[in-house]
Design goal:
Chorismate synthase, AroC fold, 359 residues, 9 helices, five-stranded antiparallel beta sheet, homotetramer
Chain lengths: 359, 359, 359, 359
């Protein structure tokens, strides 16, 4: 509940923006797997603030420390404690939020829920909360790759009104995605997206975007009927991310406009196993993976905290003009790429372990 | 896991298409609540097959029996057992599926997962599995209405390429929704949608659609930060429904195209409390309800089982032409209305109970 | 929580003494296992009331019906619904309990908890609640026996002040246990115990007892460190049974009196694997099974409901003399034998599935 | 599962004997509660090694750091991260255990389970694992005391064959318990127990013991029927402690020898509410607290690691003589006092929050 995720590959996270540190405990990692901090650091580096001019000025090294569960470079099967210190804390930046709830931010709802909120507003709704997930998910990625050959690659497929040109997800690599700051692998599209983000930043505004994700080599048979369908777990994982507003798998909302005769994916023989010639199902049928690539998309709204003046009211209902201070991303999607990938890995690792009970 | 849902308002379901019955156990229903089978039957009647010419010919009375947890018309606080007998079973209709996996259906994935499948194909992926949820959720609806005044109303907002005209969700009632068979409350749109469904049926085809849902009077403060955000739980609930392919809350995928200055919902004073003048957030901020109506949409693909000939292969990979038999809906969205509502109620009832620990 | 048990082999139960029926949903049973109602009925028959003169006069056939999850005699992997109708209901017997809480019974605490209680007093604390567990556990027993060869045998090792003579648990069978009504396999001891129960009955009184249990052929490696140790799960399972007051494994409370040099179980070579020459550990070390037989004991208090006059007070605090009516066992341990066995099976089946994720 | 405990007051722990640190995440602590590290440190100090000559020579300061969830001395409602660094690590002491499984220790079972074990043998079965629990439970104690006035006091009631003289648990304080190193509040008994421990130590041996515990002011109505009875949760919590072998509540195993007419606790009027004149129930009836003090006892075996020579075999089955090195307690019960108390607090805090959903 709340800060715990997963049934067998189980993650608990802690930490908000301005405390001593953030991190996670990962329970359920198989024993005897090679693991070092460096294996985890790669994804943390991709998510950390201050990477380039498209993101926040907040600059955190975000070095992870493995506290437990690993000895001599091998996992023990016991819980893995992970810690990332908070260094560049400036809670003073947020003093104004004590009186005025930022529009579309979590300040107001946290106060409604807890009767108190952290100095940074909705502290636990901060992007820093995702560090524990990324660290925990990076271990899951390693497990999935080594045992099943699963590759998870996400990319930015839209920023504001700029949609990416078509990308061949069957061969896409993270290196290709990272070759542009905005993390869209199509050069021309990437340029337009960067311009869009910088324009928003220039206007003291923010902009939304869409992330697409593919998971290759997921075996058929993962996902549980009824409540824990593979797409249900993925949807939950994605909608649990700060600023996400939508999820679709395979044909998604477009599929709702189609007829069955067009939408159905015919079976064909592929390398001696059954596959499908199209993939409007997005890799799942009846909530269970079918061996085709998982394909889904996640919508992210524009960040709520903007420098522009906004007309709103304070907690007492008095009209005020708010120009938010603090250091924030004008667009979350470039840095959300590793978050989407690692959350996906958390879902898949858990379902992989659950499916083992049936073998 | 799998057939259990919820932390405190906890539902377990059982049953597939062609066994003795389907049902649920509901644990966590507050004691001393008035409850009869009739309170549950209303939503089951809205969901049952054979209501009109838009749906399947399968005709089930789907009468619910309360097995336990209620005495003299009052809940005891103990688990409520619910049973609906399966009556109109014709497993013989499906004998062909033993050899040929239906395209985009769960036949293949169930076999991959379990090494066996029910006589009706992916039996547990059958729409009948949702009966237990609807029954359990109908009790949750009663609880939410009586204690908090919460009203949950879903309606069909698209069938195939037909989008509904604008509907005022602030005053919409279930009676208005039910005044048209297709369950779109806008008469002209409803007519077009019905035509679309009948055309698909005529063509031995099927068609997808979209359901919109509003929840009014949800108090501020529900939903848990991090993994169990209100929208994450809703997304999981909706993507756990058969044939669903997408979920969006508030501005959803459209919001990804906006700037923050346009997207943000300014706070205003409403009846002595803080509210927002627009609702692109869809009633949640930072994963927690803000007191505005919850608004979300769910995309459903066209049903996979169609009478039209499809080119596919059998389990051995031999090319075959398949014309599915059996009785199926050409479009799921009209009958999915009560399912969406009751699943929503399951999510909200659970979060309501969780929030009580903070009071 | 409450009426759910297990992580992967997951059971939800429902039903109290005087409703339509009692039962369970079992989720997590492996697919393709042969299963019929008769497999389950055996243990229900051993637990049902009215077997002999040592128990209650209440007479219930307690025939189980499999509602779902099995087709053509094979499990499908989907949840198995189980239902046992309540037939011999006489709630009128308990009308007095509406005013007077029975001493050491759950009447008072249920009212404190729920503000209401069932017509039979603490309805859900009734022994009939265990029917769902026994049915669910009988399936677990079959799984454990077929896949691992695990044999679970419980027997009555004490009734009141009568302790059983030594029993060789390494070869004990259920048939031997059942050869005496009191379910103590040692004839002379069994006779004394029966006399003790009949004497208590004659005096309109009740008497406590102890059940011992052995599980043979449990593989080494089952049980989870920290909170879900094998003995922790067993202790929880046993203390969740009506009337149980104590649990000990291996040396138990006697072990607390020993020195380590006496208590430790030296390792020896047994059939090519490591075993121990003594078994004061009771089959677990550090919370994990070691391959030796699991051995534990459970203490049950005398039933609270007795015909003798008791001086107590009613809900208003007025002194009253109470002579309980209704039909009750003077001693629970003979009929609790299959309950202990099947609850043990629920614990082991769950840990077996969890351990599979490590293979 | 495994390293997580609780439904609403939820604890995850990490850490073994020889890693960087041990700790916990506590999720579910109510917001706006005053909390500092000092509140937690008191119980850690009572549990830390090296307090006196009765325990191990291992000397750890065990200073706790609050990583998150608290700001300006108040809880935020977000997860509280807790870290205690491991300082006095000497894994070299244990090199012998790589070849020889210590009798009655977890070396062998961990290897069977995980195929690997930590340098200290069953690292996660180490007493250091309990630090996270104690820290998490110390917060629970504060919550229970402040909101409900609940007092939890444990004491050593037996060491080896020395039983304590009668103690009046209705007024017992922790200060009285701590006035003797052995933590038995009865002076003469304490002296005998200390002698027993020192004699065992002198003989390079170890000795077992029993801890009794009382919880005063627990409201009536806590605990969930069926699987999560209050005593079931307590039994699980206690049997999850290293070296524990038995649990009994109220009359316990003695109760099994009694008749109902003797065992039943008659109701009486106490300060305007119903209470009982005796307390053989131990504060629970039907799995639910009745407002009387909770009273239970936990049996601990003698520590497995002893300096005396033991005849055993190595992993290959070769006979060896083992004299364990390393620094170990000759008796665990004095230092286990705060562990029993805080684990009890974890159980009660969780049930308190669950019961709030019924208010």
């Amino acid at each position: 509940m709340s800060s715990c995720f997963g049934t067998l590959y189980k993650v608990s996270t802690f930490g908000e923006s301005h405390c001593a540190g953030v991190g996670a405990i990962v329970d359920g990692v198989p024993s005897r797997m090679a693991l070092t901090a460096a294996d985890i650091q790669t994804q943390l580096d991709r998510r950390r603030p201050g990477q380039n001019k498209l993101g926040t000025d907040r600059n955190e090294a975000d070095q992870v420390q493995i506290l437990s569960g690993v000895e001599n470079g091998l996992t023990l099967g016991s819980p893995i404690g992970l810690l990332v210190a908070n260094k560049d804390q400036r809670p003073g930046d947020y003093s104004e939020m004590n009186d005025i709830p930022r529009p579309s931010h979590a300040d107001y709802t946290y106060r409604a829920k807890y009767g108190i909120h952290a100095s940074s507003g909705g502290g636990r709704s901060s992007a820093r909360e995702t560090i524990g997930r990324v660290a925990a998910g990076a271990i899951a990625e390693k497990f999935l790759l080594e045992v099943y050959g699963i590759e998870i690659v996400a990319w930015v497929s839209a920023v504001g009104t700029v949609d990416s040109a078509e990308v061949d997800s069957s061969i896409l690599t993270r290196a290709q995605v990272d070759s542009f700051d905005v993390r869209c692998p199509h050069g021309a599209s990437a340029q337009q997206m960067s311009d869009e983000i910088l324009a928003a930043r220039q206007a003291k505004d923010s902009v939304g975007g869409v992330i697409s994700c593919v998971c290759r080599n997921v075996p058929a048979g993962w996902g549980e009927p009824a409540f824990d369908r593979l797409e249900a777990r993925l949807a939950m994982a994605m909608l649990s991310l700060p600023a996400s507003k939508g999820f679709e798998i395979g044909s998604g909302f477009d599929g709702a406009r189609m007829r069955g005769s067009v939408h159905n994916d015919p079976f064909v023989l592929k390398d001696g196993r059954l596959g499908t010639s199209s993939n409007r199902s997005g890799g799942v049928q009846g909530g269970i993976s079918n061996g085709e690539p998982l394909c889904f998309r996640v919508a992210f709204k524009p960040p709520a905290t903007i420098g522009q003046e906004q007309q709103t009211v304070d907690y007492q209902g008095n009209p005020v003009t708010l120009s938010a201070k603090g250091r924030h991303d004008p667009c979350v999607v470039p840095r959300a790429i590793p978050i989407v990938e690692t959350m996906t890995a958390l879902v898949l690792a858990d379902l992989a372990l659950i499916q083992k009970m049936r073998s």
